[in-house]
Write a structure and sequence with these properties.
Keywords: ATP-binding, Cell inner membrane, Cell membrane, Hydrolase, Ion transport, Iron, Iron transport, Membrane, Nucleotide-binding, Translocase, Transport. It is an enzyme of class 3 (hydrolase). One of its GO terms (molecular function) is ATP hydrolysis activity. This protein has about 350 residues and is an alpha+beta fold. About 20% of the residues lie in helices and about 35% in strands. The strands form 5 sheets. The protein has a 6-stranded mixed sheet, with helices on both faces. Strands 2-1-4-5-6 form a 5-stranded antiparallel sheet, with helices on one face. Strands 16-20-17-18-19 form a 5-stranded antiparallel sheet, with no helix packed on it. It starts with 11 loop residues before the first strand and ends with a strand. The structure holds adenosine-5'-triphosphate.
Length: about 350
């Protein structure tokens, strides 16, 4: 649940953050906000500065410049440097390392030393129940599976009731099926507890599945911050379009009629792309319509590759005038075989046009 903007200050507000290592800047004038109760995924390629942003929010590093506030309380910048243990943040990292010499209950109770013993056990027990691990309270970590250990780590991080959870690639050590289940459970628990979270991932599918908003990072900056469907369907830059999913790329020029002719058909040029301007047209695989070869359509091609993706079939279609085959996703097992002739058209949704840089 995301609280009304006016009700509570943001769980995290970073303003104009810059940071680096040695002389090298890796975070550049970064603005980022996580509302109370919101799950934001920090998504981007390796080395773009995601973990550094998390470390700054955690107080493990002091920024070169800029400010950080947690729940409306300034914690970094302007001479402040509140240490990590006083920030009311919870951590969940890939190498979540439970304490091997403590029981599951002992692990969860560890961060609750300020509470009297009975209250500590009660809160720890309630947190274990929340992640479905109440029956394992007296077990030791080495007897648990990876997924169970991850659940205990989540309970341990949530027990002290943090204002903000910081998660750094927390599921990357799990196999794909388990990973999906634990990810859904984690999102459910965070939402049920109304805990805000900032989660680092380089996996677009993970961010699309978990986030209320995705902050897409490139080279130390947030290039777009939006709800998952918006980021996928209205990327602000070619980088964002490529990072969120497959695209076929076509370069062409805007015509005098304000349209761009491509081998797949004509698309309207957006404002600012005047006649003669070089354009980059990017087409998502699901934006291509396939028809029987004899249909009157904008383009004709031939199927060169065919791959079952479970719910979808991925096809590559060679078209005259295009260097690379067009990537197409069809629902179901597809009615096309390699070598088939097809007619093609474009939907408007899933086609993005940018000025060619
Ligand atoms: N302690 C450090 N000392 C020097 N350089 C560092 C240090 N930590 C990170 N870097 C560099 O800063 C840049 C950003 O690193 P960061 O770990 O924040 O990126 P990331 O987006 O989380 O990448 P990844 O997904 O690979 O972890 C990288 O080029 C990295 O090599």
């Amino acid at each position: 649940m995301i609280h009304a903007a006016s009700a509570l200050p943001p769980a995290l507000a970073c303003r104009g953050l810059s940071h680096g290592y040695g002389q090298r800047a890796v975070i550049r004038a970064l603005d980022l906000e996580v509302a109370a109760g919101e799950i934001v995924c920090l998504l981007g390629p390796s080395g773009c500065g995601k973990s550094t942003t998390l470390r700054l929010a955690a107080g493990l590093e002091d920024p070169w410049s800029g400010t950080i506030a947690l729940g409306g309380r300034p914690v970094s910048g302007q001479g402040r440097s509140v240490p990590p243990e006083e920030r009311r943040i919870g951590f969940l990292f890939q190498d979540f390392a439970l304490f091997p010499h403590l029981t599951v209950l002992g692990n969860v109770a560890f961060g609750l030393r300020a509470l009297p013993r009975p209250a500590r056990r009660q809160r720890a027990g309630a947190c274990l129940a929340m992640v479905g691990m109440a029956d394992y309270a007296e077990a030791y970590p080495h007897t648990l599976s990876g997924g169970q250990q991850q659940r205990v780590a989540l309970a341990r991080a949530l027990a002290p009731e943090p204002l903000l959870m910081l998660l750094d690639e927390p599921f990357s050590g799990l196999d794909s099926r388990l990973r999906r289940r634990i990810r859904e459970e984690t999102a459910r628990v965070l939402r049920a507890r109304d805990v805000a979270a900032l989660m680092v991932t380089h996996d677009p599918e993970e961010a699309l599945a978990m986030a209320d908003r995705i902050a897409l990072m490139e080279d130390g900056r947030i290039v777009q911050c939006a709800a998952p469907p918006l980021l996928y369907h209205q990327p602000a830059t070619p980088f964002a379009a490529r990072f969120l999913g497959d695209v076929t790329e076509i370069t062409a020029r805007t015509g005098a009629d304000g349209r761009i002719e491509t081998p797949l058909g004509s698309v309207p040029a957006p404002a600012g792309l005047d006649a003669g301007t070089a354009a980059l047209v990017m087409v998502r695989p699901e934006a291509v319509l396939l028809h029987p070869a004899e249909t009157a359509a904008a383009a004709r091609g031939r199927v060169t590759a065919h791959r079952a993706l479970g719910r979808l079939t991925e096809l590559r279609i060679a078209i005259d005038g295009m260097a690379e085959p067009v990537l197409v996703h069809q629902d179901g097992d597809g009615s096309w075989a390699i070598g088939d002739g097809v007619a093609l058209g474009l939907r408007s949704k899933g086609v993005f046009v940018f000025a060619q840089s």
